Every structure is written in structure tokens, then in C-alpha cells.
TrEMBL record:
SMART domains: UDPG_MGDP_dh_C. Residues 311-427 form the UDP-glucose/GDP-mannose dehydrogenase C-terminal domain. Gene3D superfamilies: Cytochrome c1, transmembrane anchor, C-terminal (1.20.5.100), NAD(P)-binding Rossmann-like Domain (3.40.50.720). Belongs to the UDP-glucose/GDP-mannose dehydrogenase family. Substrate binds at residues 140-144, 199-203, 239, 246-252, 317-318, 422. GO terms for biological process: glycosaminoglycan biosynthetic process; UDP-glucuronate biosynthetic process. It comes from Rhodotorula diobovata. This is UDP-glucose 6-dehydrogenase. Pathway: Nucleotide-sugar biosynthesis; UDP-alpha-D-glucuronate biosynthesis; UDP-alpha-D-glucuronate from UDP-alpha-D-glucose: step 1/1. It catalyses: UDP-alpha-D-glucose + 2 NAD(+) + H2O = UDP-alpha-D-glucuronate + 2 NADH + 3 H(+).
Length: 444
């Protein structure tokens, strides 16, 4: 977006992974995101470059965005909660050792509070004499599937800096970049800590809304209330607002769970156990929602799904992306496997290889042959549904609303059941065709 909006700025994206960089330089980009391809193709070779020559890019740059991943630690102190800052630290050390002129280093990765401080210490301790490094925190708030429009018209851009004159000057340099397309009042300057914490806080509050409405969906199902009516009526209160109140089979994605776990870890490190418990509950509710959905499928199918064919429509964690990180669909499919069902999966954007990777338990032993006996990846929704006894909608892809439902009904074993984990189908119309329908948060 910077390259697209600022033709006078040269943007070079560097990565150690040659294959990935080659993909960015090819006709087929390594990720799917609506509108991305057009922008990349328009700017590539003009003021947008992809390269593995990291050192050259560091030497030439005035501003360096550190945008590496910060996965949840798998072992050691804080395992399962804390962010692994290995990549952030190694980037910082590389910048320190290679730079021959002063730089503004922008922390773009989501990092727990005080990482900017550590980056500064590393840079100052390792750099050549006479060089200055200013650190800014500039968290990213885009969501997948809408990345390009979020970047084009952000609700806000947050730039954290030290309150020293040098910190403020660095902040001003980045404000100037954004002011090429973002209105002034939307670019907010804060301290470094506030900026880092805001990123975790915003995601935690968003995920909390989903867990809140999902907790209410369980009440709706047993009382006969309708979760969409409740969400709509609550959302009309301007203090609550209508967005992010869509009940679902659970939230997924690479960010919500990871960031909340970070917040939990931070709270515990600060000796605030009640605060940690409070945020942990958002995740607990999400796990409950996924399990609850899968259990509903089993109980509706006469308490057994052994050897029954189940169609799973949607594997990505949300529509308009091929990303499957923390996707609720994988959790639900694993549950179905444990119950010995035969699962046929269709997703318009997730490659077959990725689905098998997500359903195979890493590390312990290679169970891919077993998975392949139970799981089939299909090329169309129709193929996945043919002969099935139940259909589960696990991603809200628009194309699922327009399927030929009467033909699907004809092709299925009876009674034919639909479990709408995303609340996107018109249940009454499906019932007229003959389906038995369950929708999240709706009494039957
Ligand atoms: C999220 C935030 O929305 C972004 O602001 C943030 O920048 C990003 O994380 C990040 O930290 O990088 P993302 O994970 O891409 O973005 O996608 P969301 O649109 O937030 O969806 C997350 C999950 O919540 C999806 O599984 C989605 O289906 C689910 N969801 C969302 C619901 O179940 N109900 C809703 O009402 C909204």
C-alpha cells in the first residue's frame, strides 16, 4: 500500500525464504487477498521490489519495518502463552551489524509490551559508533480478506515513540509517509508502551465480543431466542455498535488466540492473576463453542457419526482468505475423526495439501495415511455433499449461499441434515426442501 500510494518512495521487501520471494516475483502470489494482486503487479519493478538480499536493503533504507512473525512459544518459559521473539531479536541484531547509516526502525510485528525497549538496547549496544537508531511502534490493524481496503482506509494509524525530541522527529517521518493517503486526524501518536499494548488490547476486545455473543448463542439454543435478533437489537445501542457480533462456530486466525495468550502471560508476569483469568476466559469460551458445535452434530445424528459421511464446507478461518491458522474447521474435523466419521471437505481457496497438513498431528508419529483414509478433499461443494448424511458450514464463503440446495438434497442420504456454523443460510427455505437444519444460536 505504501508503494501504491507513494510513487516517490522505494519499498523493498526482503525475506530469507527464496521460494517465497520467487513467488512474490511471479505470476502467482504466495497468498490470496482480494485486490492485492492488482497493486503488486502495478508497482512491482517500479517502486516495489522483492528480494533475498537482506543486507543490501538494510544499508539502503531510511526506514525499516520489522514485520516478522511472533508465534506462541512451544517450549521453555511461558510455553503456550508467551510470544517467541526470536525472529524480532535476530532481525534487530542483523540491522545493528549491517547498517552503515542512521535508521528509523519500525516495530510492525505484534509484540508484547516493552519489546521496542529491548530492540533499542540491542541496536545501541551493537551498532557502529556515530549511528543513531530510533524505534517506533506501528502496529497493524488490518484483517485478512479485507486487508487492502483496511490499509487504504484505516480507522486509525497508531505510531508509538519515545517522548524525546528525537523520538518525536522519527514519529513525524512516519506520519509523513502515511499522510500521503490517510487523513491527519486518523494518525495517532502515543508512547511506545501504549502502542504495543493497544495492539493486544484491540484484538482481545474484538475476540471478547465474539465470545460474548457465542456464550449467548448457547442460551438462545435452549430457550428458543434467536441469536441474530439478540445481536441486532444489542448492536443498535450506539454504545455497543453492530460489528463483530456475529455468532459462529468460534473465532480463528493467527492473531486473536495468540494475542490473548500474550495478554494472559503479560498479566501473569505482572502478578495480576485475576486479570489473566479474565482474558483467558475469552479463549475458554471459544474452545467450548467449537466443541459444542461438534457435539450438536453427533447428538443430532442419533448419537453416532461412526462411518457416516459428513460434508464440511469451508476450511479457511474466515471467507476471502486461504489462511487456515487456528481455523475452527480443523478443530471440528479433528473431533469428527475421533468419532470415526468419514469427512469430505471443500474450500474454494485452501489447497488440499494444506488441509492434510492441518489435520495431521505434527511430531508424534506420521498419521497422514490414517487421516487420508478418513478425510477426502473435494473440488466442489456438490462433490463433498453427494451421499453425505450431514453438511457442516464452517466458513462463511458467499458461494455456499448460492448452491443448488435442491440438487444437494437429492444426492444425500436421508434424513439430510445441515449444520450452519456461520449462520449464513436461510434455514426456512432449506426446511421446505426437506433438510433438517441446525443453526448456531437458534432454537429448533
Ligand atoms: C484480526 C483483527 O480483526 C484485525 O484488526 C487485526 O489487525 C488482526 O486480527 C491482526 O492482529 O493481525 P483477522 O484475524 O484477520 O483480524 O480476522 P477477523 O476478521 O478479526 O476474524 C477473526 C475470526 O473471528 C474469524 O474466524 C471470524 O470468522 C471470526 N468472527 C469475526 C466471528 O466469529 N464473528 C464476528 O462477528 C467476527
Amino acid at each position: 500500500m505504501i508503494a501504491h500510494k507513494c510513487p516517490h518512495i522505494q519499498v523493498t521487501i526482503v525475506d530469507m525464504n527464496q521460494e517465497r520471494i520467487d513467488a512474490w516475483n511471479s505470476e502467482t502470489l504466495p497468498i490470496y487477498e482480494p485486490g492485492l494482486e492488482e497493486v503488486v503487479k502495478a508497482c512491482r519493478g517500479k517502486n516495489l521490489f522483492f528480494s533475498t538480499d537482506i543486507d543490501k536493503a538494510i544499508v539502503e533504507a531510511d526506514l525499516i519495518f520489522v514485520s516478522v512473525n511472533t508465534p506462541t512459544k512451544k517450549s521453555g518459559v511461558g510455553a503456550g502463552y508467551a510470544a517467541d521473539l526470536f525472529y524480532v531479536e535476530s532481525c534487530t541484531r542483523r540491522i545493528a551489524s549491517v547498517a552503515t547509516s542512521s535508521k528509523i526502525v519500525v516495530e510492525k510485528s505484534t509484540v508484547p509490551c516493552r519489546t521496542a525497549q529491548s530492540m533499542r538496547t540491542i541496536l545501541e549496544a551493537n551498532s557502529r559508533p556515530g549511528l543513531r537508531f530510533d524505534i517506533l511502534s506501528n502496529p497493524e490493524f488490518l484483517a485478512e480478506g479485507t486487508a487492502m481496503s483496511d490499509l487504504d482506509k484505516p480507522d486509525r494509524v497508531l505510531i508509538g515513540s519515545l517522548s524525546t525530541p528525537e523520538g518525536r522527529a522519527a514519529q513525524q517521518s512516519l506520519i509523513e509517509v502515511y499522510s500521503n493517503w490517510v487523513p491527519k486526524e486518523k494518525v495517532i501518536g502515543t508512547g511506545l508502551w501504549s502502542s504495543e499494548l493497544t495492539k493486544l488490547a484491540a484484538n482481545a476486545i474484538l475476540a471478547q465480543r465474539i465470545s460474548s455473543i457465542n456464550a449467548l448463542s448457547a442460551i438462545c439454543e435452549v430457550t428458543g431466542a434467536d441469536v441474530d435478533e439478540v445481536a441486532y437489537a444489542c448492536g443498535l445501542d450506539s454504545r455497543i455498535g453492530p460489528k463483530f457480533l456475529k455468532s459462529s462456530v468460534g473465532f480463528g486466525g493467527s492473531c486473536f488466540q495468540k494475542d490473548i495468550l500474550n495478554l494472559v502471560y503479560l498479566s501473569e508476569s505482572l502478578h495480576l492473576p485475576e486479570v489473566a483469568d479474565y482474558w483467558r476466559q475469552v479463549i475458554t469460551m471459544n474452545e467450548y463453542q467449537k466443541r459444542r458445535f461438534a457435539q450438536t452434530v453427533v447428538s443430532s445424528m442419533f448419537n453416532t457419526i461412526t462411518n457416516k459421511k459428513l460434508a464440511v464446507l469451508g476450511f479457511a478461518f474466515k471467507k476471502d482468505t486461504g489462511d487456515t491458522r487456528e481455523t475452527p474447521s480443523a478443530t471440528v474435523c479433528r473431533f469428527f475423526r475421533q468419532e470415526n466419521a468419514k469427512v469430505s471437505i471443500y474450500d474454494p481457496k485452501v489447497p488440499e495439501k494444506q488441509i492434510f497438513l492441518d489435520l495431521t498431528e505434527p511430531g508424534v508419529q506420521d498419521d497422514s495415511a490414517v487421516v487420508k483414509k478418513q478425510v477426502t478433499v473435494c473440488k466442489s461443494a456438490m462433490e463433498a455433499c453427494t451421499g453425505a448424511e450431514g453438511i457442516c458450514i464452517l466458513t462463511e464463503w458467499d458461494e455456499f449461499k448460492q448452491l443448488d440446495w435442491p440438487a444437494i438434497y437429492e444426492s444425500m442420504a436421508k434424513p439430510a441434515m445441515v449444520f450452519d456454523g456461520r449462520g449464513i443460510l436461510e434455514a426456512d427455505k432449506l426446511r421446505e426442501i426437506g433438510f433438517k437444519v441446525f443453526s448456531i444460536g437458534k432454537g429448533v
